[in-house]
Amino acid sequence: MNSVALPRARASGPRPWALGGLALLLLAAAIAGMASGAMPLTAAEVLGALLRWLDGRPAQGDDAVVLMLRLPRVLMAALVGASLACSGATMQGLFRNPLVEPGLVGVSAGAALGAIGMIVLGGSVVAALPAGLGSFGIAGAAFAGGLLATWLVYLCGARRPGVATLLLAGVAINAIAMAGVGMLTYLADEHQLRDLSFWTLGSLGGTNWARLAAVAPLMALPLACLPGQARALNALLLGEREASLLGFDPARLRRRLVLLVALATGAAVAMCGVIGFVGLLVPHVLRLRWGPDHRLLLPASALAGASLMIGADAVARTVVAPTELPVGVITALLGGPFFLWLLMRLRTGEAA
Question: Which pTM does this prediction carry?
C-alpha cells in the first residue's frame, strides 16, 4: 500500500505568534467552558473563583461549581483533546498520510472492547473492587485493551517491517475488536446498553479530581515527549531511506512513536470513551494552514485540540441542558461538515 506523500517541511521553523494565538484561544475556551453549563456563570465569576482558590481565600457563592465540577472537567477535556490531536499529527507524519488518525493502530477499538467486556462480563470483578475503584476497573480494562491491541499491531509490524504492514494490521485489529464490541452489545441487557453508549459515543461526565489525577500523567508524558520527535518526523517526510541517511533509525522511531501514541490515546479513551474526528481534523487543518513542519504542527495541534475539546464539551453540556449529549456526537457534528467544506474549497493537488 502506497503512502500519500505529505508536502515537505518548510524551513521557516516554529512561529511563536501562531502558538501564542492558539494559547490565547485555549485560555478563552477554558474560561468559557467553566462559565457554561446548566447554571451559567460570568467570566468575572469564574476568574474570581480561581483567584480566591489560588490565594487560599475562603470560597464564595458558586465557587464550588467552578472548582469541584467544571475546573477538573475542563482540564480533562484539554488533556484528551491535546492527546488525540497531537497523536493524530504524529500518526499522519509517521504514515505520511493526512487521512490517518490515532485509532488506526487499534488502540481506540481495543480500549472500547476492553471496557465493554468488563461492563458485560466483568460485573463480579467490578463489584469485588474496593469502594471508589469500580469505575477505575472499567477504565483500567479499557486502557489494557488499548495497549493490547497496539501490541498486536506492533507484533505484526515487527515480522514484516514497514508502515504498510502496520497500517493493514491496524485495520484488521480494528475489525476484530469492533466485531467483539458488536457481539458483546448483542449479549448486553438494557441497563448495560446505557453504559455502553458512554464508550461508543464518548463523554466527559463523571470527571472529578480523582479521575483526573489518575490519568493525567499517562497523557502528560506523551504530550511532553512527542514534540521532541519533530525533527525525526520531518526527516521521515523525505522517506525512510533519506531519514536513515540523516542519522535516524526508522524502525526504532516507529516503535517509540507508536508506544507514545498508544499511551496517550489509550488513557484518553479509558476515561472518556471513543471520541472521533479530533485526531483527524485538527492536525489536517493546521497542516493546510501552516504546512507540515512538525516543530510547529505538534504543539499547535495540542493547543488547538484542547480548545476544540473544551468547546465541544461546553456545547454538549448546554445544548440540551440539564441533560448532556455525548461529546463524540458534538465533535462529529462540528468537525464533519467543516472538514467537508474545507476539502471542497481546495483543489485536488492542495488537499493531498
Answer: 0.85
